[in-house]
């Protein structure tokens, strides 16, 4: 092709037809420019296609992480509701100076139950390391940041505070006054002492409060998680 164009230029020069030669030269330049523009357009299209595929992969990964978090929150919601019910029954029984029976052992463990939310941050941290601008939808990007860095962060912060309280107060008390059985269940070493012990009653009140608070937060954050999942689904369909 290059030889063909050179032959035409040489022929025009030999004919001393400079008018046609300049027109031809301009036409050749335009062809080159058009070729470059087409090549750039194809390259941009390929890059945009790669970016779209990458974004789709990231959104799928984020969705999987959020679905997992939602399932965890739903399980924790049931767990916290159970803790709330058991701690309230135990408080009522102790305040009424009720007698000891073996069925209470399944209630004494409540203050040492799993008061964590268990949220995973891995997919979002991976996204941040790659750059949040991978997600082209600004609203979705803002919703993800709010969910992970506000809603989930609050849960994580509370986990830390409860873990400190558990280590400093609840765990030492239960180790001193209870024997751990299978189940898990806790059998008091001296039930009469527990019955008169204001410290254990305070621990139960705190556990009951946390269970109620965490139940409500699970409901709220689970709903927020569902909304972000819906937005991701909408984006994946486009």
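^ structure tokens above, recovered residues below v
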């Amino acid at each position: 092709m290059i030889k063909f164009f050179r032959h035409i230029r040489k022929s025009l020069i030999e004919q001393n037809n400079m008018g046609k030669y300049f027109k031809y030269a301009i036409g050749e330049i335009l062809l080159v420019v058009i070729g470059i523009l087409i090549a750039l357009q194809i390259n941009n299209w390929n890059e945009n296609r790669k970016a779209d595929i990458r974004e789709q992969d990231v959104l799928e990964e984020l969705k999987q992480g959020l679905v997992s978090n939602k399932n965890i929150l739903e399980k924790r919601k049931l767990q916290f509701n159970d803790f709330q019910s058991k701690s309230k029954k135990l408080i009522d029984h102790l305040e009424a100076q009720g007698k000891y029976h073996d069925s209470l052992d399944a209630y004494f463990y409540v203050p040492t139950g799993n008061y964590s939310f268990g949220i995973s941050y891995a997919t979002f941290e991976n996204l941040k390391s790659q750059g949040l601008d991978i997600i082209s939808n600004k609203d979705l990007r803002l919703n993800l940041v709010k969910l992970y860095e506000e809603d989930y962060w609050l849960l994580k912060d509370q986990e830390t505070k409860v873990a400190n309280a558990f280590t400093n107060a609840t765990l030492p008390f239960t180790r001193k006054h209870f024997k751990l059985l299978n189940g898990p269940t806790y059998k008091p070493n001296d039930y009469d002492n527990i019955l008169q012990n204001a410290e254990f009653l305070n621990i139960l009140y705190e556990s009951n409060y946390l269970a109620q608070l965490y139940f409500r937060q699970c409901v709220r954050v689970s709903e927020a998680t569902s909304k972000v999942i819906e937005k991701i689904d909408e984006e994946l369909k486009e």
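The helical segments are 2-14, 18-95, 105-108, 122-130, 138-177, 191-196, 198-237.
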